[in-house]
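Interim report, section 4.2 (structural modelling).
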Amino acid sequence: MSGHYTVSDYLVTRLAELGIRHIFGVPGDYTLAFLDRVLASGQVSWVGNANELNAAYAADGYARVAGAGAVVTTYGVGELSAINGIAGSYAEYVPVVHIVGAPSTRVQRAGALVHHTLGDGDFEHFARAHAEVTVAQAYLNAGNAAAEIDRVLATMLRERRPGYLVIPSDVATAPAERPLGPLQVPPPDTSARVLEDFTAAARVMLSRAGTLAVLADFLADRFDVRSELADLVAAGGIPYATLSMGKGVLDEDNAGFVGTYSGAASAKPVLAAIEGADLLISVGVRLTDSTTIGFSQQLDPARTIDVQPVSTRIGNREFAPLLMKAAVQALVTLVTELDRSWPQPDLPETPQDDDALPGHGELRQAHLWQAVQRFLRPGDIVLADQGTAFFGAQTMRLAAGVTFIVQALWASVGYSLPAALGAALAAPQRRTVLLIGDGAAQLTAQEFGTLIREDCNVITILINNDGYTIERAIHGAEQHYNDIPAWNWPLVPIIMGGATMRTARAGTPFQLNRLLDSVADPTGPVLLDAVLPKLDVPQLLTAVARFATAANKRNG
Amino acid sequence: MSGHYTVSDYLVTRLAELGIRHIFGVPGDYTLAFLDRVLASGQVSWVGNANELNAAYAADGYARVAGAGAVVTTYGVGELSAINGIAGSYAEYVPVVHIVGAPSTRVQRAGALVHHTLGDGDFEHFARAHAEVTVAQAYLNAGNAAAEIDRVLATMLRERRPGYLVIPSDVATAPAERPLGPLQVPPPDTSARVLEDFTAAARVMLSRAGTLAVLADFLADRFDVRSELADLVAAGGIPYATLSMGKGVLDEDNAGFVGTYSGAASAKPVLAAIEGADLLISVGVRLTDSTTIGFSQQLDPARTIDVQPVSTRIGNREFAPLLMKAAVQALVTLVTELDRSWPQPDLPETPQDDDALPGHGELRQAHLWQAVQRFLRPGDIVLADQGTAFFGAQTMRLAAGVTFIVQALWASVGYSLPAALGAALAAPQRRTVLLIGDGAAQLTAQEFGTLIREDCNVITILINNDGYTIERAIHGAEQHYNDIPAWNWPLVPIIMGGATMRTARAGTPFQLNRLLDSVADPTGPVLLDAVLPKLDVPQLLTAVARFATAANKRNG
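Predicted structure of the assembly:
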């Protein structure tokens, strides 16, 4: 086994080629042969997590920053523990490969009653479960391994969704040939004729429009048109907004940025600019209940150019196959040709922060988000968990080049803590700021131990409001199912691995601001425990709760 | 909604009827309508867990003691987080119902892009995944709810495997009729003629046998023949053993008990009694790799009466349909009729513990298991996680009436901590003793917070040996994938909810014995941090590791 190039080595070579320098996971006896080759590779580092769901979340956070991620679990128990994280990557278009170490081919062929199986001799239960939440799957053997690894990774990259690779323990050590060349990822076609038709139709729309706006969402990030989008809004001075899942896709520190679009709950200037435009260019938008506050958007398809990953729609006309990048590039050209300056909406003056007068009263959500916004710097990575953090963070205006990570469609509570680990390892030179509630943090809390061990520059602001406040806002404000055991968060590092993590508690706006100032240039992980009232929620969440209650009544 | 009897109430009524007095889970907005009826019921208590996998494990532990269990999760994110726990219940025949709160029927019909979905309008992905690991599934609507709830619960009880119920939020509040009578659970048939044939064949086998032994395993527990088994071995003074997954099914504090059977790794008297018997009555046995130490058993089918849940086999002859209970009752009658006393194997004298001389040197695995065995009392519940704890615990001789819980087939590391919570809530009058390694405990550690909140009499002995020692024994003793962040376990309660949990650290046999004495009658949870050498493993695990290495070589 020693010395020769194996299937495991082939996979590691490919992962490194995709920019995957860290693999997350939990070891199990069926995975150890593969992990030995990871450790020996010198190309990819092993990051052990406390459990497999956390590992999948970490790989997702890593992929959102590095472009692709990988998680390794053992057969059955490990892969099923991770599957919720993989499903999140599927829902939100994040390319993560789930590598599963399995019993040897011989054991499987014999249908043996080995550990981590259901005991019925059927070794494909979990592959079938994964087929529901991955875009490509392969069961490797010594003969097909290289071709199947390439197929799954290429599909994953093309579709921006997770892949699934099962490696029986004997296949992990089977000999393989080194790749002959780089991984081929043929993109889906753009038809030249379709592009021409689209350009013609878009030209007509643009020429007729008195006002124009751009609305961008997360698929613009996933299908890699950030810089084209920036060119587009710059070319015509076009006012623009993003949905909350696409926050940060376009620079918010810019005159053209009108705010975050949240359907009827948007600020008035955002509504006017986006819903009132004669023509809306919408790029990579998915209108979900959470981001539109219950589908409250008023967007007229007849006045929209709706650019999606492999097709674009104008009114009832669909242009396909047409890649997002090609469509946006065409729009940049058109807007540049038109060479006009588009009307700007009236924006209210942004209120200036009163730096001199931080408060000494109770810390509330409104103060928190003001303090965080002031704290952020260009280039930071910001994660907000799917609780009050998500709704509060939407109202911030981000500094330039901030990467904003939320999981608002899949919305798995607790996701953002392991995801912050992944993001920080993908970009150690940047600051990573994590905003997470106490209820959410309890789901995945043991990953603070990994943050400490890896010594990541993650500044966690723990929104400590005594339970599931987001649920309280929607239903059962005082029902005890929304209560959780009260934890003493500042002591977490004392348990989970030591003194390298700085912690403190903030109960007033003054304390929070002062603490944030003191950790602005961290040399390791930081945990700030921000104590807030149990029923205090961001304004936007109040709107959401009103909608949810109304929807329940309609359905009830 | 208030006042009228709903589908939720119907389900709660049925759960209470099955002896389910506690429901585990994590709330989510799609589940809140159901949870309101749980809280209002006064029949079933809500136990909120830190995350859904922990909740599923807790429900499994509860079911192993109370006969059935229930876990409630929200759609998508929640149910997939729990699915590994449900799969464990499937593999090991534990009746747990997984209740999933889902988006309303109207939302599903519209294929709306709501949170906790994959965004593709297909609302059946997760039901299909669950079909792989549950024995009955239903998607409830107002019309079918009562019938479908009954069908799923009855199938779950008959097959002793998990069921899956999806309740859309509008269906949870839909009106329902109260049940007309108790849940009907028709058992599978026993054919009278088959029973007669079996009895005749077994009589011949018994009459010819010079020596006889009984080997019992976990399915004897699941299919409820403990008392018949006790009658059987008592009737003829038959020597008996159990496999480790069936440990405690038969009284170990009895002259007939020869030990735990572990294939070739069994103690010599066990091998002689079980493999050497002229006739072996094997009841509810599943020969798995972990319990037979790599299928090293030497059991001759021609000399075995193999009693399974719905059939029995003697040599090549299968008797079906024949329920386990009927078969064992028939054997009791036959053995009683024969009225002979069977030869007993020569057992070595059990070495007496030297109470007077506890050691002051390093605490090692051998001391640990001696100390725990001395500590146990009749009627305790003991859980051992699937690491060194599992292999060490097998070698103990249990006091009478001890319930022993391991998950050796599914073998999901970390399972036993939440399962201990469930077991303790099912039997609060008993002591629950949890044996778990530090690596395992990190997977599910936040459930200590729930143990503290619920004030359970769980005595945790944390086997703190600096990582995944079971993996080290098998492969990669010093590879860093077997390392974990070092936690300061005695401080855990200070973080997770307070002073009601007693903790202490033991580094010598003397300290461990003294601490155990001091917590013998706990009035709340206890955590003892037993510090052991990293590479010290129970003797049995050494045998397993030898096997695993050999198997890898054969396959590699």
